[in-house]
Amino acid sequence: MTEHAKGRLEKSAPTWITLILAAACGLIAANLYYTQPLIESISSAIGLSSESAGLIVTLTQIGYGIGLLFIVPLGDLLENRKLVVTLLVLTSIVLIIAAGARSAALFLAASLLIGVGAVAAQILVPYAAHLSPEQTRGRNVGNVMSGLLLGIMLARPVSSMVDTYFGWHAIFMISSAMLLVLALVLAKVLPARQPQTKDQYPVIISSMLHLLKTTPILRRRALYHAFLFGMFSLFWTTVPLVLTSPVFHFSSTGVALFALAGVSGAAAAPIAGRFADKGLIRSATGLSIALVILSGLLPIMFPGGSVFSIVILVIAAILLDMGVSANMVLGQRAIFALGAEVRSRLNGMYMAIFFTGGALGSAAGGWAYAMGGWKAAMCVGVLFPILALLYFFTEKRGAHGDMR
């Protein structure tokens, strides 16, 4: 990119472009979560045994992890708009294949590729940072991330409702159409961004481990969020189990409506971005961790099946989503300040590490719930943000540009 082009990109993006990027990230990321409430419907339709049904979600997540490590870094090498549009078109085709799949092997292969394609959202997030000058970068990234988080939070209840009225195939067809339209819109409205690196793809990939070893801020921010995302995944893995248990007697629709409670937590993302732009990353990080700890303690302190307990769960869900949303943006704001030429690689490593924390949280939650029920799961879950807090206390004041 010439210096002139670089200057053009780093002028503050128009609000409407930020909104389009936020909507795009939400629509793309939702594909990771559509299948979670549909496992039973899909597995019975494609002849997948109950023992193997979990592969539907697992392979999607594995595909996402592969994409974070091997596709997202291409954002530092290839023209960003063309890369994202290509991924959207290919993912749209794979979604149609998934909708029409009649065999388990074909559907599972499509699930893996859907996960790979969903990383297009994580190319757009650092792209949004490139569209923003330093003084508003946190706010703009926060706005885009709020769209991504809304997509994640709405995906489960939306797919559950679509399945109820139209069958599970419909959500894949609808998403395919939306991604195709989105590809056309982004191709039309987004400014091009051609990275100026002279490195080849193998060098780009091999440099990621070097970045991890030599970038303390990346390691710290990724570990913070791995701990918080572990609690997030544990909570949302186990809360449907307790809601549908004899304690609460929720229907699947009731669980979907409960999931909507967490949507308001996405509002914390742009607020966190504003704090970051004011040099308050460290203070806001401490607050984010505290919110997640509180979200884990409340269900432990107020168990039971009363209306009051449901209110407590709703409050816990909102606090959890607020803390996790805010901390994600704070982390991205900190690592994106390290250099425009490596933002996609930094983002790929950041996401891959905390994604691993989420996988551990889900596994720990399922195990703890099976061993000791909901309270045991929450006791295990709250250990994740407590570890984040202990690690936070080791951070020196003034790290990653925190000035207050």
For the structure shown, list the relevant keywords.
single chain, 404 residues, mainly alpha, Growth Hormone, Chain: A, 16 helices, 0% strand, disordered N terminus
Fold and architecture overview:
This protein is an all-alpha fold and 404 residues long. It has two domains: 1-196, MFS general substrate transporter like domains (Growth Hormone, Chain: A, Up-down Bundle); 199-404, Growth Hormone, Chain: A. It has 16 helices and no strands. The chain is globular. Mean pLDDT is 91; it is low at 1-8.
In the CATH hierarchy, the architecture of the largest domain is: Up-down Bundle
Overall helicity = over 70%
> What is the highest CATH level, the class of the largest domain?
Mainly Alpha
- Enumerate the spans where pLDDT stays under 50 for 5 or more consecutive residues: 1-8
Which fold name is given in CATH as the topology of the largest domain?
Answer: Growth Hormone, Chain: A
Tell me the name of the CATH homologous superfamily of the largest domain. MFS general substrate transporter like domains
Topology, element by element:
Blueprint (H helix, E strand, L loop, with lengths): L2 H7 L5 H15 L9 H8 L8 H16 L9 H21 L3 H14 L2 H11 L6 H30 L1 H22 L11 H14 L1 H28 L8 H10 L6 H10 L3 H21 L5 H30 L6 H50 L12
Helix pairs in contact: 2-7, 2-8, 2-9, 4-6, 4-16, 5-6, 5-7, 5-9, 7-8, 7-16, 8-9, 8-12, 8-13, 8-15, 11-15, 11-16, 13-15, 14-15, 14-16, 15-16
Concise structural overview:
This protein is mainly alpha-helical.
